[in-house]
Structures are given as C-alpha cells and as structure tokens.
Amino acid sequence: MDFQIRQAITANVLGSDATEFKDIVNDAISRGEEHLLPGLGVFLETWWQASNEDERTHFVEKLAEKFAN
C-alpha cells in the first residue's frame, strides 16, 4: 500500500470519535466496494500497532475461526 494513501486516510479521520469510526467501518463493509479496503487496512494496521499480544491473539483466533474450512 502506498504511504500517501495511509497519510490521506489518517488525515481524513483525524479527530473522529468512536461512533464515527464505527459508522465508517459499518458503511465500508455494507457497501462492499473494493476501493474502500485500503482504508480498512489502515484501520487494522493502526489497531494492530496499538494492541497488546492478548488482543492480537484473540483477533487472529477469530480470523482463523471465520476462515476455517
């Protein structure tokens, strides 16, 4: 992902509160448009960097569960 995309997405959401982030994520998922995926990726990357090991483990376990055959 191009670094300028990260900066643009970050600038667009700077100062947003939890409700606004929830709305952004729900809207991106409900639309199902692929051009919104980089924004969700930036959110995930930011969350991952701010999370502790227990939170990360829980997250990847949920992912593995959802993508299990």
UniProtKB/TrEMBL annotation:
Instruction: State the taxonomy lineage.
Output: Bacteria, Bacillati, Bacillota, Bacilli, Bacillales
Q: In the UniProt record, does the keyword Transferase occur? A: no
Q: State the Pfam families in the record.
A: SSPI
Quote the subcellular location field of this record: Spore core
Report the induction information.
Expressed only in the forespore compartment of sporulating cells.
Membership in a protein family: Belongs to the SspI family.
> Main location per UniProt?
other
Q: Read off the InterPro entries from this record.
A: SspI (IPR017525)
Establish whether keyword NAD is in the entry: no
Q: Which UniProt keywords apply?
A: Sporulation
**Protein name in the entry:** Small, acid-soluble spore protein I
